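Human: Respectfully, please carefully check these tokens:
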Amino acid sequence: MTSMSTTRSRTRDLQEDDSRFLAVAASRSFRGSRFNVVWRSCPAGPSCFPLKGRSKSNSTEPFSMSPEESKNPEPAAQPAPEKSPSGEGDSERRRGPRRPRRRRQRNSNQGGSQGEQRSARSADSAPAREGQENQEQRRGGRRRRSRRGNNRRSGGQEQSAPIEVPEDQLEPVCGLFDAQKDGTGSLRFVQNYYLASDKDVFVTRDLVRKYSIRPGSIVDGDSAPPRKRGGRRVLYRIHKINEKAPELHADEVPFRSLLPCDPYERFELETKDDPDISMRIIDLLAPIGRGQRALIVAPPRSGKTVILQKMANAIHESHPEVKVVILLIDERPEEVTDFKRNTNAEVIASCLDEGTANHVRVTEITLERLKRQVEAGHHIVCLLDSITRLGRAYNNETKHSGRILSGGVDAKTLAKPKAFFGAARTIEDGGSLTIIATALVDTGSRMDQVIFEEFKGTGNMELVLSRQLANNRIYPAIDVGMTGTRKEEKLLEPDVYKKVTVLRRVLSQLNPMEAMRLLVERIEKTASNAEFLAKFDVER
């Protein structure tokens, strides 16, 4: 009896607490969430209100107790407690509903109870956690192994270099080395003007470090097929670097450390078999030496293209040991074809339809190649057409400093074109780099005039062409008074220098048209410049 009365008193107390709780809950806002309250049986009557998830109808059932449950409470013997859908124990049911509990349940608005998900996770958490850790370890190991030697830029080509390849699978290859930021590189080919293509040969980081290959070096070796399908061929063996043994390449002095000096050895543009009048006049008025920094100032349609082609052929015929390279920037495609057909030089071109970025890229990689040839002790002649268009390209591609010169030229735009033109030099007891560049004037563009003025004092030889002579069909249209070479006494023999000085004095007394017409007539009557100078009386 005592136990029964105690149970009934506890039931009444809990009912009073529940009534107060419902009154408070009804007066508060639950942020639009509706819940179903499920009454559970226990020896002491309904002792708690476990909450379920949102009902499908989103309706709230009334908080009530059936008459049978209130009149006939359960016996004192406590059966095994039924687990609540929320997955919590009996201790939480005895404590009754709590505010934090309701906040957690309100967040579960995705169609299921968080308690059910939590209980399902906790039931198999131990084996799942062990399996997940083992799987992550296996994946991590694979990721670490795949990252070793991974080369994002080359697409993993460094690992595709075979260790041993049969000789019948090797192919000879010769190309220009272009370095990448990650230490690897590629061999570019002149057929693509040293630009990237699918036929480029990949060079591993080990070979670059072993032989200290610098950008612009000409590498001759054997290439092996890649391991991956669709990949590039890989450089397997190196025979020569810049026409030298690979072991001797590391001992070459860098270009900046070489000692430049004044040109002292002259290029003979006058050929023996078929001497050209234009080349003979240039030999007399503006001799070109090895390492010369020459500037051909030419207005449109003044004959500069023909003069460049004749120079290339004359140097190739008179000095076969000299390598001649023609660099055409922003040029018409038909002009590129004409240079390839009418000259015996290597033509590197970037046509006007390829964009300024391509112009800059071709120029920079060509300059690196020229420097490597000079380091190896070779004599190189580069004919650039034109340095004005090169300045335009750098003006578009260089990040502007905010200081704009006349004509829309940025203050630091011409730094790299000047570096290209200034690379011409003759090395004491070494090779030489001769650059003969054309500068466009009288085009109606203020930018072209500014670019010419910036380069006007940087060269040590100027060949000025006259539009007036070209309009009167007097070729070569050379302005005698404006044409000349600095320190030409180092290029000419003493007696020849004296006779050339007398010739200049005579021609300077005439206007440009009469002077060039007279000079052309006298030279045509002689077979060589030596015969022409022999008729001069030095004592005049």
